[in-house]
Amino acid sequence: MARILAAAVIVQAIGLAALGGWALERNRSTDEAAYRTLSTPTASVPGATIRFVPSPELSVGQLQRLLADNELRVVNANEGGTIFALAPTAPAYTPTSTSEAIARLRATAGVLLAEPIARDPDAR
Questions:
Q1: Which of 91, 97, 77 is nearest to 47 (CA)?
Q2: Is there a single domain that holds both residue 111 and residue 54?
Q3: CA 38, CA 12: separation in Å to the nearest integer?
Q4: Residue 44 has what DSSP assignment?
Q5: Which among 46, 74, 110, 113 is placed 20 to 30 Å from 60, CA to CA?
Q6: Are residues 60 and 19 in the same domain?
Q7: For residue 121, what are the contacts with CB-CB under 8 A and spacing of at least 6?
Q8: What are the strands of the beta sheet with 111-116, ordered from one edge?
Q9: Do 54 and 12 share a domain, yes or no?
Q10: Do residues 51 and 84 make contact, with C-beta atoms less than 8 angstroms apart?
């Protein structure tokens, strides 16, 4: 009788461990998409090279002029329209051109954030 009870306890332990592992894995896979930051790689937007956050005080006209002066265009925005992905309008844009554009954007009043969008998740 003791052997049967011991076998039942072992079978229950294995079953609970398997169920716990399944529940943890299921929970882990749904949590990954629930939280995102600015540094989290996004789905690739064709041509986007700069992540840009303007100040709320920056008018639409000023924003249009700033983008035109730097030969940039908006190719994507977050749901609230506060974070933009910018792409060059000129086809001959290079990484050096992107760095220079970021430096000019950062030096402009009304720009809260201008950073390169990493193509490689390991590149920072």
A1: 91
A2: yes
A3: 45
A4: P
A5: 46
A6: no
A7: 41
A8: 72-77, 84-88, 50-54, 111-116
A9: no
A10: yes
